[in-house]
Write a structure and sequence with these properties.
This protein has 2 domains: 149 residues, Nucleotidyltransferase, domain 5, CATH 3.30.420; 187 residues, Nucleotidyltransferase, domain 5. Helix content is 39%, strand content 21%. The chain is built from 15 helices and 14 strands. An 8-stranded mixed β-sheet has the order 5-4-3-2-1-6-8-7, sandwiched between helices. The protein has a 6-stranded mixed β-sheet with strand order 11-10-9-12-14-13, with helices on both faces. Helix 10 crosses helix 11 and helix 11 packs across helix 13. The radius of gyration is 22 Å and the shape is globular. The two termini are 15 Å apart.
Length: 404
């Protein structure tokens, strides 16, 4: 079964085409992206698995045009990987926010589309773009089954004691103000893959997953289910990120807003786009910050220490909440590519049973590897995340179930 996976952002589309024989047997046929939608110089980058990369630069007015170009590339005699659109049996969509409606991923129908729309106020940047992708496929490939895979669905297992805020309960009842969590597809995937790598049983394990990139979150995975997570009502909460502030005293924000005469919109932009590492150092990329630390930049050194120690803090907190840990998993751009970051975070975790393999960790980049010593009571792993594969396999599973 050939599945098209779409991840539609506000001005971009990422895609993969994956042929799936079973939940464990699959083949990547092509991947690519459309960038700068709505601008004069938009770009389609199409990379077939066994053919040269194909690039198109032109104006792409909207998501429908972008998806049309993707489809044309997929069936092109020179650059394509399928013969006709009939070869595509389903389309899986990343949808950021499912609110409390969706505890699992679902086949898309009119009711599902309406509920995704109702969640727009919870994810005003992402959900409208996700809906555009669904609507574009509906126009371009009518009647093809589509599946919504939600960032939030994995975290619907979090108990009320961990998702409620200590605010008047009426605001949860009226406006559903609570912790939702994000990156759920990645956390679910790397918890399972990490458990297999470590030789432990997912359904009986205490796992802490660290998805650390420009956006960053951590999850306590207890017996295979999300038990707590660092992002909250929005992706701003929790860890320090490239441009997001992470946890902060709300009264500090009110104070700044009064002093600077900020509107709510400007305040939101500040905590989402101008804070985090950017706010502390004027740099958002950890590689630039590492270079600045080497040059003796004092602000960069403080910022990097804050960034690292917030991750260590959550590891300790989640181990305490779960009554220990069997496995810590690092994934995401920073985690997978920066051995020194992993070493700094794990330095000092001996008290909880981590025996870190400093030498074994040193050369590990973008590969799946145990980076704790063989006798370590708590194992540590690096796992490359693959959210698109999760979306594809979930789509495959739901379509198989529908046909049975």
């Amino acid at each position: 079964m050939t599945i098209l996976v779409l991840n539609c952002g506000s001005s971009s589309i990422k895609y993969q085409v994956i042929r799936i024989q079973s939940m464990t047997q699959y083949q990547l046929l092509a991947k690519g992206s459309v960038e700068r939608i709505g601008q004069e110089e938009s770009i389609l980058s199409h990379t077939p698995a066994e053919k040269p990369e194909y690039t198109v630069s032109r104006s792409i007015a909207n998501h429908s045009t972008g998806i049309s170009l993707i489809i044309n590339a997929l069936i092109d005699p020179r650059h394509g990987v399928i013969e006709t659109l009939l070869d595509i049996k389903g389309v899986g969509h990343r949808v950021v926010h499912g609110g409390e409606y969706f505890h699992e991923n679902v086949l898309i129908n009119r009711d599902v589309i309406a509920k995704i729309g109702e969640c727009i106020e919870l994810a005003p940047i992402h959900n409208p773009a996700n809906l555009k992708g669904i609507e574009a496929i509906d126009r371009l490939i009518p009647n093809i089954p589509q599946v919504a895979v939600f960032d939030t669905s994995f975290h619907q297992s979090i108990p009320p004691k961990n998702f409620l805020y200590a605010l008047p309960y009426e605001y949860y009842e009226k406006y559903r103000v609570r912790k939702y969590g994000f990156h759920g597809t990645s956390h679910r995937y790397v918890a399972g893959k990490g458990a297999a790598l470590a030789g432990i049983e997912l359904e009986k394990a205490k796992i802490i997953t660290c998805h650390i990139g420009n956006g960053a979150s951590m999850t306590a995975v207890l017996n295979g289910k999300s038990y707590d997570t660092s992002m909250g009502f929005t992706p701003v909460d929790g860890l320090i990120m490239g441009t997001r502030c992470g946890e902060v005293d709300p009264s500090a924000l009110f104070h700044i807003a009064r002093k600077e005469e900020m509107t709510f919109g400007r305040l939101s932009d500040m905590i989402n786009k101008q804070a985090g590492l950017t706010g502390l150092t004027d740099m958002s990329d950890m590689r630039d910050i590492d270079a600045a630390v080497e040059r003796g930049d004092a602000r960069a050194k403080v910022a990097r220490t804050m960034y690292d120690e917030r991750v260590t803090q959550y590891i300790g907190a989640y181990a305490a909440k779960m009554g220990g840990a069997d496995l810590i998993v690092f994934t995401g751009g920073v985690s997978e590519n920066n051995p020194e970051f992993r070493r700094r975070v794990c330095n000092g975790l001996e008290f909880m049973g981590v025996d870190f393999d400093t030498e074994g960790n040193a050369g590990v980049r973008r590969e799946d590897r145990i980076i704790s010593k063989p006798g370590s009571r708590v194992k540590v792993a690096v796992v490359s995340t693959n959210e698109e594969l999760v979306i594809a396999t979930d789509t495959f599973r739901l379509l198989k179930k529908r046909s049975e």
